[in-house]
Specification:
The chain has 451 residues and is an alpha+beta fold. The protein folds into two domains: 2-137, no CATH class; 163-450, Alpha-Beta Complex (Nucleoside Triphosphate Pyrophosphohydrolase), CATH 3.90.79. It is built from 13 helices and 15 strands. The protein has helices at residues 2-26, 34-59, 70-90, 110-135, 191-211, 242-250, 253-259, 317-329, 365-371, 391-397, 406-420, 422-433, 442-450; strands at residues 66-67, 101-103, 106-108, 136-137, 165-173, 178-182, 219-228, 233-241, 269-275, 280-286, 297-298, 300-303, 336-347, 353-361, 381-388. Strands 5, 9, 10, 11, 12, 13, 14 and 15 form an eight-stranded mixed sheet that branches. Strands 6-8-7 form a three-stranded mixed sheet. A two-stranded parallel sheet has the order 1-4. A hairpin with a 4-residue loop joins β7 (219-228) and β8 (233-241). α1 packs antiparallel against α2 (34-59) and α11 (406-420) packs antiparallel against α12 (422-433). The two termini are 33 Å apart. The relative contact order is 0.12.
């Protein structure tokens, strides 16, 4: 936040200051030759560019630095145009060799005065170019790493392709602040997409039979809408199925997005960063038998299933994550000391929405190891891995070599944001990804597909 405010103030000072100076010169337009007028126009363009950049930084709050798209290209063009205009304007001080010259009554030395004037005329354009480099992330590159980066974290660990997940919202929401509403509105679809879903399901069913993996089409909860407010969260859920999840998230995602964002199953999942009583974070190493992200570290959790009797549906996302902890870790509900919702994220490739929880248990690390059963029927994890829950250790833990799923990375980062503050979170994101994770919705991906 401080870097953004500093950039806004710098742009305003440079823009307004240059405008005042150049307008004072422009009032003497009768005494300016053509080259001088070109320089005045160049300085004025750079001044307006600074003001425009300040406005852009004020309006766009989702990313820092900004994404380098059309506005960044325009500002860069204006900066270079201003620099060229400044050099052209300084040519009024060049005369024939060996001739003593006076310009508007002032004796000049051709080369020195040309360089001095060119420097002064081009300075606003140069500063605009620097501000553009600071405030925009370049495609294929990384943003400047902020000062105060955590110790022991190399700058080379930053990715060039950004975060592998979207963040819909982040915060701290206990059970009483999360409201769930059920909607019977079905998932919109098209005949062509339905045929693709059927084909994908048959493909996965045959693969499951060959590998001995259990696969069934159970009813799941679909995220229709999520609204995070200052004090609470509203989740509107509706019906979907595992079959639709397979057919629109694991397969045919591009086709589903092209048909419309709502055509995705949006089967909502729950994942927890499990915190032990002796201060460790626990993640599971996924089995190679699972449908996706086999062999990767992932939070403990699963998908939210429809529960209810007599045609009614009762959704309790907190109950869902506690049940998942019991099934996957052997932790009984009374052994959970605290659980809080800290965010909603989406794997950038799968687009599946995932609620992220902080879940504290009364077990120590050794007790978790003792009750965890990797040989349980349909066990999704082969091992539990731990990291000590302090900022520096977690920073080092976020290493690509550990093979964390996108949801695992997001969960650990949101845990850090919840416990160690926004500064730790932002600095870690810059080191890992060169940017803050995108708040973009799947609708932006749909626009890319249709475009």
């Amino acid at each position: 936040m401080g870097r953004r405010v500093g950039a806004i103030l710098a742009c305003l000072v440079l823009g307004v200051g240059s405008s005042v100076a150049v307008l004072a010169l422009a009032r003497q337009s009768g005494r300016l030759d053509l080259a001088d007028r070109v320089a005045v126009m160049g300085v004025l363009a750079a001044a307006l560019g600074h003001v425009a950049l300040a406005v852009l930084l004020t309006v766009r709050r989702q990313h820092w630095p900004l994404r380098d798209r059309e506005p960044g290209s325009i500002i860069g063009f204006v900066a270079w145009l201003s620099i060229v205009a400044g050099v052209i304007g300084a040519t009024s001080l060049l005369g024939g060799p060996g001739r003593a010259r006076f310009v508007r009554g002032v004796p000049v030395s051709d080369a020195f005065d040309f360089l001095l004037a060119a420097t002064l005329y081009t300075l606003p354009g140069v500063t605009l170019l620097i501000m553009k480099l600071v405030t925009f992330r370049h495609a294929g590159g990384s943003a400047p790493t902020p000062a105060g980066r955590g110790p022991g974290v190399p700058a080379t660990s930053a990715r060039n392709d950004g975060a592998p997940f979207f963040i819909d919202f982040a915060g701290r929401f206990p059970r009483g602040q999360v409201h769930v509403r059920w909607s019977q509105r079905p998932r919109p679809t098209t005949p062509a997409l339905d045929r693709l879903i059927t084909s994908a399901w048959e493909t996965e069913r045959r693969a499951a039979q060959q590998s001995g993996r259990l696969l069934y089409d159970g009813p799941l909860a679909r995220l229709v809408r999520a609204e995070a407010r200052a004090e609470d969260v509203l989740l509107e859920l509706g019906p979907t199925s595992y079959r639709e999840f397979i057919g629109t998230h694991l397969h045919n995602t591009g086709e589903a997005l092209a048909a419309g964002v709502d055509c995705l199953a949006h089967a909502i999942g729950v994942s927890a960063v499990v915190m032990t009583a002796d201060g460790y974070l626990a993640l599971g190493r996924r089995s190679e038998r699972v449908v996706y992200h086999g062999g990767f570290l992932h939070p403990f959790g699963g998908m939210v299933e429809q529960l209810g009797e007599g045609g009614g549906v009762s959704m309790d996302v907190f109950g869902s994550i506690i049940r998942e902890a019991q099934e996957e870790l052997g932790v009984k509900p009374h052994e959970v000391s605290d659980v809080v919702l800290i965010g909603l994220v989406r794997d950038r490739a799968l687009h599946q929405p995932e609620l992220i929880f902080d879940l504290s248990i009364r077990f120590t690390r050794d007790e978790v190891r003792a009750v965890f059963d990797a040989n349980a029927p349909d066990a999704e994890h082969t091992a539990v891995e731990f990291v000590h829950g302090d900022p520096e250790t977690v920073l080092a833990f976020l290493d690509p070599a550990r093979q964390l799923t996108p949801v695992a990375e997001a969960a650990v980062l949101l845990h850090g944001r919840h416990h160690w503050g926004a500064d730790w979170y932002e600095q870690t994101c810059y080191v890992r990804y060169g940017e803050l994770p995108s708040l973009a919705s799947p609708s932006e991906e749909a626009e890319k597909v249709s475009g």
